[in-house]
Each structure stands twice: as structure tokens, then as C-alpha cells.
Amino acid sequence: MINVRTDLAVEARELYKQINKREADGIISEEEEINDIKVTTVKIINEDGAVKIGKPIGTYITIDIPEFTHYDGEVMDEVSDVLNDSLNKLIDINPSKTALVVGLGNWNVTPDALGPKVVERLMITRHLKAVMPDSIDDSVRPVCALAPGVLGITGIETGEIIKAVAEKIKPDMVICIDALASRSTRRVNRTIQIANTGISPGAGIGNKRMEINEENLGIPVIAIGVPTVVDAATIVNDAMDLVLDEMIHQSTQGSEFYNMLKTIDKNEKSKMIKSLLNPHVGDLMVTPKEVDVVIDSVSKIISNGLNMALQPSLDMDDINKFMG
Predict the structure, then answer these.
(1) Which of 302, 323, 324 lies closest to 113, judged by CA?
(2) What is the largest CA-CA distance in the chain?
(3) Which GO terms describe its biological process (predicted)?
(4) DSSP code of 115?
(5) What value does the mean pLDDT take over residues 281-305?
(6) d(CA 240, CA 212)
(7) pLDDT, tens digit, 9 for 90 and up, residues 19-51
């Protein structure tokens, strides 16, 4: 099992392959490009694969967001279309099925506010079939949503809230949106992961909570996440790797200094960095300074893609008219 702090299956798979020089048994990976947008699908097909990369059995679709998306409405729409197509591979498109969308996270903390911001932009329809039956036809899926907050605000496990609501309203599926943690700075705010394995809130930053998955809720659970933070120790470790690689490149091959650099165990170095930093910064997580703008843009991408996936009989013009 890879002992690295990341919520992304694609990163866990890459790390295993990098360390072991081969693909993990029980893992199937496919890559494609749609309108210059890279989409990677990682399928964990058995327990052996799950143990080796530390992720549950299931399908993980990763969308790499192109640069400048946060300022380019056209590219944002293209990413939303790809998200819609990816979601349709994992959810039941039957419009009679009720969907409960859950925006996980703390709305008071910008890097953790992705889920609540997506919920604000969703087309909510479950109540309308009762109050406006003549205006809502059978092609419109019943959708309801909530942003339950976090344990520190409510004193209640998020999983307990979702389970109680699900038992009351009996949705056919739950879709959770959450901020994740990455082990690579290049993926922060630049990657969307969709998985049919559910989610464990707070796992990426070391806070293990009740898992929100089909086993606990009794219905399919889709998780949509974007890494918004990276571990500070990871940044230091990656920077040191770059320095070491450059020093090796500039050293005379076969020299004593060259041989010493080549014998450095990168896994041991990583452990040393964590132990040295911990007394001073603890489990420090880092996010870019423009995170407020980024979260706003990414939440629009996800909400648009989700609205299209949940309402396949409507186009974006119809959805926008409904949203006012």
C-alpha cells in the first residue's frame, strides 16, 4: 500500500508504478483526450489492487482542467461537458430516479467550501412536482440537496446526517461533492475526480470520519472532488527531489559525491522531512493565494456539469432559465 497523503486514485496508481516499475495487479488504467482535456479512468477491479494503492474497489475518473479555465468561460463550458459525459458513465440516467446531492465541507473556510458552493448553483426540483405539477413534467428528475457543515460546527458526524436524511426521503442515489488533498502542487485546483466508491470526509487531511458509501447508506454513492490543498511536507520533499536530481546531473559521474547522492533513499528522506517539520508546522496544508477565485470558478464547472447530468432532457438554456 502507498503511504502518501492523497485522495486521488490516479496519483496513488502513478506512485505505485513509479516505485515498483510496473502497473499494480488488479488495476486497469485508460487515458483519452476530449477537446484537449485529458481524462484518465482508473479501475480497481479486485482487493489486491485496492490494497496496493490504498483505494476501495471501483471506478475513478480524473479530469485535468486546462490552464486559464478560471478566466475563460468557453473552456469552463467544455470541462462541464466532459464532466457531464463522465458522470453519465457512473449514474443511472433514468429521470424518475431521485438524487440527493450533498455539499460536504466548511463554508467558512474557502479551500473547504467547494461542496456548499456547488449546492448553491444546483437545479433543485424535488419539491416542485408537489407544488407545481402542471409546470414540471416527468422528464425532470427530482433533485434535492443539502450542505450539512462539518463536525466542528454541528457536533454531528456528516455521515450520520446524510444517513438520517436518506432514510427519511429515500433517494435512489447520493452524490457528494468535497474538497480533496493532492500530493502534487500541479494538480491543486486543476483536477476533478469522480468515483463510484463514495467518500470519507476529511481523510485527505488526516481526519478520518464515517464513510459515506453504498455499504453504509444502502444506495449508490457518487463522489466528486477537487484537490484544493497539498501537504507542506510534500512540497518540501518535491523541492528537495528537484535539487538532488539537479545536483546529480551536475556532478561528475562516478565521483564520491555523485555516488553519495545516488544512494540517498527518497522514502527515508520523506520520513525525515515529516519528522523534522512536524514540531514546527504540524500537519500544515497549503493552498494557492487565489483560492477564492478558483473555488468560485470550479464550483461553476461542477454545478453546470452536474445539472446537465441530472437533467438530461434539458439543455443549459432551460436550466439557466429555471435558475433565474
Answers:
(1) 302
(2) 82
(3) proteolysis; spore germination
(4) H
(5) 86
(6) 37
(7) 888 888 999 999 999 988 999 999 999 999 999
